[in-house]
Amino acid sequence: MQLDRVSLDLRSGTAWVQGGATLGQTYYAISQASNVRGFATGSCPTVGVGGHISGGGFGFLSRKYRLAADNVVDAFLVDAQGRILDRESMGEEVFWAIRGGGGGIWGIIYAWKIRLLEVPKTVTSFVVSRPGSKSVVSRLVHKWQFVAPKLVDDFYLSVSIRSAAVASRGIGEMNAQFNGFYLACMTHLNGGFIKGDRTKHTTSKLFYIHELQKNGDINMQQIRSSDNVADLFTKSPPIATFKRMVHKIGMQMLKDVLIRGS
Ligand SMILES: Cc1cc2nc3c(=O)[nH]c(=O)nc-3n(C[C@H](O)[C@H](O)[C@H](O)COP(=O)(O)OP(=O)(O)OC[C@H]3O[C@@H](n4cnc5c(N)ncnc54)[C@H](O)[C@@H]3O)c2cc1C
């Protein structure tokens, strides 16, 4: 018995997730049932909901929907006396404690009842790596600290910093990897991506791209992941996709060109 079942009820917009399920299993079950529902947890699929939600649980949707624990509406808890308690029988104090107070402290979470969250059919995600010297990376991170909190709530932007030794594509001493996630197609950001009331006390040069977009000086276009030819140079796509992309950018083997030419 793995206690990893995820049972969804789309009508009430909730799901019971057993304490042994991983985030990956939870996301998968939700995605199989609906393409406009999601949940605000972390991005690592192997993490378990037992410890994750007990400690809060922060992820791509958290700027908009807060923590995973904030979206728990009920739970079954087995306490030290072996009693099985739901929200009503454990009381609001204990229910508050189990949502953020840490795993393995208040009892065993048999299952969480979570609120499913609204997500659009199309979202935008990106990963950008910027390797460089310590000063280059620290300048970027300094800038990120001002920009990230001022983005609209639908837009999540995190950065992780690694030494080049562990960074996958390190050129230079360090690497800053930016993970972005936007709850819509990027082209829908007509009004710009910075919240108007959040820019006070912040130098305007940090919002240069935002201003360009807002004024219509640059034109953002949607490129579906399957059509992103840039992936050819940064990822290892399946052979069929690789060939399609090679064809799309017009790349040819020199020997084929020479044979045709002669
Ligand atoms: C690769 C990786 C990526 C991560 N990414 C994120 C992220 O994006 N966002 C974020 O917020 N956190 C993230 N974390 C942190 C993660 O949420 C915590 O480490 C969490 O405690 C993991 O829970 P677990 O059940 O997988 O681990 P475990 O080590 O099994 O459990 C952690 C604690 O919770 C207890 N516990 C587990 N299950 C239950 C249960 N059913 N009832 C009661 N107690 C239980 C355990 O006894 C233990 O004390 C990440 C961790 C890793 C390893």
Mean of residue pLDDT? 86
What level of helicity do the residues show? 25-40%
Structural class by SSE content: alpha+beta
Q: How many DSSP helices?
A: 9
> What general form does the structure show?
globular
Please report the distance between the alpha carbons of the first and last residues: 68 Å
Main beta sheet: strand number and arrangement?
Answer: 5 strands, antiparallel
For the record, the CATH architecture of the largest domain stands as 2-Layer Sandwich
Brief descriptors of the model:
alpha+beta, Uridine Diphospho-n-acetylenolpyruvylglucosamine Reductase, domain 3, 3 domains, 5-stranded antiparallel β-sheet, 3-stranded antiparallel β-sheet, globular, binds flavin-adenine dinucleotide
What report would you give on this structure?
The protein is built from 9 helices and 10 strands. It is α+β, with helices and mostly antiparallel strands and 262 residues long. The termini are far apart. The strands form 3 sheets. The protein has a 5-stranded antiparallel β-sheet. A 3-stranded antiparallel β-sheet has the order 8-10-9. A two-stranded antiparallel sheet has the order 3-7. The structure holds flavin-adenine dinucleotide. Flavin-adenine dinucleotide (FAD) binds next to helix 2 and strand 6. This is Reticuline oxidase. GO terms for molecular function: FAD binding.
